[in-house]
Amino acid sequence: MLQKFALAVKTKTIEFFAEEDEEEEEERAVGVDDPDACPAPEEVITGQRVVVLRPDPAPRPDPETLTAAALAALSSFQAAYLHLQTAHSPFLSDAVLSADRAAVSHLRRLSEVKRLYLSTGPGPSPVPTSALPLSFLLEAQVQDNQDLLRTFEALVDRLQSDIDRKDAEAAALEKALADLDGSGVRLAHRLERACMPAEERVESLLTIGVFDSVLRDTCRVTHRFARVLIDLMNLSGWNLGVAANCIYPDVNFTKPGHCRYAILSYICLGMFGGFDSYDFCDDGDGVDMDEIDVSIRRTDSLQQFIEHSALDPLELMRDFPSSDFVKFCKKKYAKLIHPGIESSLLRNSAIGESLLGSLTPSSPLYESFASMASSIWMLHKLAWAYNPVVKIFQVAPGTEFSMVFMETIVPKVDKLHMDSGSSSRPKVGFTVVPGFHVGKTVIQSRVYLDDSEQTL
Questions:
Q1: CB 433 within 8 A of CB 226
Q2: Which ranges of the sequence are coiled-coil (predicted)?
Q3: Cis preceding linkage at 133, omega within 30
């Protein structure tokens, strides 16, 4: 009967306290051994004292275990939140959703740990709870370590991004530093030249490269004026071949179109006439150089070159009609374009006869001629700033071609002449652009070769 009752209430322990009577113990022992002596269910057993204990309440979670689990869940939530922030910059939708789910999961776990912790207070538990399994703590620790590892990976990625950005900034700063170093070197050279004495400063500026550069600009604007003049001659019905034959009657041109080089030569040699005179006078009435001190001549010439380079020649001719440059322009224009030529060029124009032969703004040659004259004027002033003075030379027609002092103005023709089997050197037909001696350096004269002995 007691055994059935104990099974019904699921008792944990049953204690029997019997009287210490040997005879009763022997009878109880015999009764147990004899199956026929089993008491009937209605039999009341006397002399026994039975104590029934209720089941013990379920063991409550250890506070230390709960604390460790709470810390692990909090650390995991912190790592998940960091991943959530990282996924926003740049924005990655999949990473944001994954980090959000992980953060919510850790918050739920933290809430469960809180509920378990509150259930460990004094008195009976308000909510029936079960013992916190050991796997819960181990799982929390594993999850915590994984989240820490992912946190470190995110931090490493962020640090690597910062390193790349710093490297790019460092490269940009290095380039800026190199540019500043180059600027510093140039400024140092300028300061060094500025601190030089006047004589040394002039010497540092006056190089062969400077003169050659100004000469090239002069040739460019001279070609431009020649094209304008040739276009006017064509419009006026001029025969360029006849005009070229009048300038150089005994020259055989390789091609009919090469007769324009004769007109270009006429312009260049006319404009450069008197270049070896200090005041650019080609009539023999120039200033005597023995009366001019070298340093004064060089300083004055360089100053005029610098000042003139900053001026507009058209404004100079309009505002200062009595200046030396304007006088130079009028004299050269009158020599190149005399009244007969201009009258022929402008026969269909409404310009009055009184304006022919004079340099006026109404002339179609006015602007291009002013630019050409200004460039040649600057080249002359620069030449007289050198010591010794730059010397000009030209090659006489019929002279044998020399590669030291000459270059042909038509390179392909030059190559044909050089490759031909003729034993004699080609002859110069005429000089197009004069050459110059800058100290011991020769700037070659540009010539046109006579084609009298060549057939193409």
A1: no
A2: 149-183
A3: no
CB 378 within 8 A of CB 372: no
End-to-end CA distance of the chain: 144
Residue 106 tokens read as 């850790």
Q: Which DSSP string do the residues of 161-226 spell out, in sequence order?
A: HHHHHHHHHHHHHHHHHHHHHHHHHHHHHHHHHHTS-HHHHHHHH--HHHHHHHHHHHHHHHHHHH
d(CA 331, CA 267): 14
309 C-beta neighbours (distance < 10 Å), count = 13
State how far the alpha carbon of 154 is from the alpha carbons of 86, 150, 274, 435, in Å: 7, 6, 83, 75
Instruction: Give the dihedral of Cα atoms 288, 443, 213, 186; nearest 10 deg.
Output: -100
H/E stretch holding 233 reads helix 208-235
The residue among 383, 330, 345 whose CA lies nearest residue 263 is 345
Please, which residues bridge with residue 18 across strands?
48
Rounded Cα distance between 236 and 22, Å, is: 164
d(CA 83, CA 97): 10
Query: CB neighbours of 31 closer than 8 A, spacing ≥ 6?
Result: 37, 38, 39
Buried/exposed code over 162-174 (b: 16+ C-beta within 10 A; e: otherwise):
eeeeeeeeeeeee
**CA atoms within 13 A of residue 224's CA, in its CB half-sphere:** 16
pTM over 0.70: no
Phi, psi of 78 (to 5 degrees): -60, -40
Rg (CA), the chain: 57
Residues found in the chain:
456
In sequence order, the β-bridge partners of residue 51 are: 15
Burial 85-98 (b: 16+ CB within 10 A, else e): ebbeeeeeeeebee
Tell me the pLDDT of the chain averaged across its residues: 76
User: Quick one: tokens of 338?
Assistant: 């005399």
- Is the CA virtual torsion 307, 312, 313, 315 positive or negative? negative
Query: Model confidence over 373-432: pLDDT tens digits?
Result: 999 999 999 999 998 899 999 999 989 998 999 999 987 555 555 555 555 778 999 999
3-state secondary structure 263-325: HHHHHHHHHCCCCCCCCCCCCCCCCCHHHCCHHHHHHHHHHHHHHHHCCCHHHHHHHCCCCHH
Q: CA-CA distance, 444 to 273, in Å (whole number)?
A: 18
Residues 129, 140: Cα–Cα separation, whole Å = 19
Q: Are 371 and 228 in contact (CB under 8 A)?
A: no
